[in-house]
Amino acid sequence: MKKTTILSLLFLISVSLFSQEKDAAYIRKIYDEALERGESYSMLHYLTKNIGGRLSGSPQAAAAVEWSRQQMMAYGFDTVYLQPVMVPHWVRGNVEVGRIVNSKKLGSMEIPVTALGNSVGTGPEGTLAEIIEVNDFQELAELGEAKIKGKIVFFNRPMDPKLMDTFSAYSGASNQRGSGPTEAAKYGAIGVIVRSLSSFKDQVLHTGSTNYGLNVPKIPAVAITTKDADFLSDLLKDDKGLQFYFETHSEMLEDVLSYNVVGEIKGSTNPEEIIVVGGHLDSWDLSEGAHDDGAGCVQSIEALRLFKALGYRPKRTLRAVMFMNEENGLRGGRKYAELAAQNNEKHIAALESDRGGFLPIGFGITGTKAQQKKMIDWAPLFHPFGLYQFKAGGGGADISPLRTQDVPTIGYIPDSQRYFKYHHTPIDNFEAVNQRELELGAASMAALIYLIDQHGM
Question: Which of 5, 129, 146, 210 could form a disulfide with 116 if both were Cys (CB 3.0 to 4.6 A apart)?
Answer without folding.
Answer: 210
